[in-house]
Request: fold
Amino acid sequence: MSKLWLGCHIDMSSPHYLVGAVNTAISYGATTFMIYTGAPQNSIRKPIESMHIEEGVALLRQAGMDPKKIVVHAPYIINLGNTVKPDTFAIGIEFLIRELKRVDAMGFSMLVLHPGAHVGMGSQTALDQIVKGLDAVLSQDGTSVRIALETMAGKGTEVGITFEEIRYIIDHCAYPHRLGVCLDTCHISDAGYDVSDVDGILTSFDSIIGLDRLLVVHINDSKNPRGARKDRHENLGYGEIGFQTLSTFVHHPRLGEIPKILETPWVNDQPPYRQEIAMLQHNEWKEHWRDELEKTT
Reply:
């Protein structure tokens, strides 16, 4: 049986940065994790020399984690689909080049990116602009880090909400070997896919994009019914998707080597990840598992 690569989003904050993130992941019982290199809402970044990268990588190896399974997420501010504000598009390209170099310097190999939004100009216009932006980035960054385009829920003017749109970006990019996909269970459900049919989802993904391009899966329940296009994550088993479907994704043999990352909401200012990871590892639902966290003061 292959190792279960299962973890969650973890803050990488001062003063311990990557060392602190690894220790937090260990305390949750995780075998991988996802980080932002700084706040996801802005482009402010600390010098990488201050982030204890070498010690952190040594610690994660010691804990049995694989640097190739660690996930970095790009900040939300990047919108390569913007044709309305040239400065926004240019800033996104510049920042993404620097972010890929940071990921490479940290010794990791993948960066999750929200494809972008059309801001009123139509999906096709945005898709072509994203291709243009990715070509500019990947021709200049000088790394081998792969960008995992995240499947989106369809909130606002987001694009990348169907497998076909993701495939269009890959097919038209001059550097398709540098592109992969991040499949988010909440997002695809909110976009209208029937996530309860796990085999059907994976077969469709494979035929349209190819499972060889699937680099990471975000495991999230959804507060909203299928097709709502809201993108509101929920804790495992408390949403519209349900624990068993999410556990089926986690344990599916076709996804054996792919890291699975939880982005579920905190409960009463407490991280739920130790409890959620344990339930998924044992494929066992614990009724009322949030009660203890909800009572914490």
User: Anything to note?
Assistant: The longest strand covers residues 179-184. DSSP finds ten helices and twelve strands in the chain. The chain has a mean pLDDT of 96.
